[in-house]
Amino acid sequence: MAASPPAVGNVYGCRSYIPMSTAATSTRLTRHDREGIRDAVVQACAETKAVWQSVVLFGSRADPRRLGGDIDLLVTLDPSHPVDLYRFTQRLRLALEDRIGEQRVDVVVDDGHGDNTFPSLAREKGVELWSKR
User: Which CATH number does the domain housing residue 43 bear?
Assistant: First the structure.
C-alpha cells in the first residue's frame, strides 16, 4: 500500500497537498531536492506573508540531457499581496540551504510589478514544478 503524499505547510490556516507537475519528475533534481524546494518556498511565504503562485525550474537542471549546473528557480508571487522581495529572497535562500544543503541555487522572484522579460523567458524554457493556477 503506497503512503499518502505529504501535506505541505500550514499557510494561512490551509494545510494542503501540492501535486507536482508530471514534467517535473523528468528534471535533474532528486526527489529530496524537489520536496526541499517546495517546502522552502512554503516556509519563506509563511515567514513573509507572501503568496506564491508557481515555481519553475529553468536552466540546465530542467533538461535531462545536459550535465552539471546550478539549480535555477523562478518563484512567481501573487501581485495582490505585496511583500519585501529582498526579505522574501533571503528567507527562501536560508530555507533552501536548510532543506537541500549547500548547493548552487539561483533564485528569480517575479512579483508582477517589475520587468517580466526574464521571468517570461524562464517560464517558456523551464519546467513548472508546482502551480496554484
Answer: 3.30.460.10
In a domain, 6, yes or no: no
Q: Are 122 and 105 in contact (CB under 8 A)?
A: no
pLDDT at 7: 41
Give 58's Cβ-side CA count (13 Å radius). Answer: 19
- Confirm if 96 and 40 have CB atoms less than 8 A apart: yes
* Number of folded domains that form the chain: 1
Q: Are 34 and 129 in contact (CB under 8 A)?
A: yes
Cβ neighbors of 133 (< 8 A, separation 6 or more) are 53, 54
pTM, two decimal places: 0.79
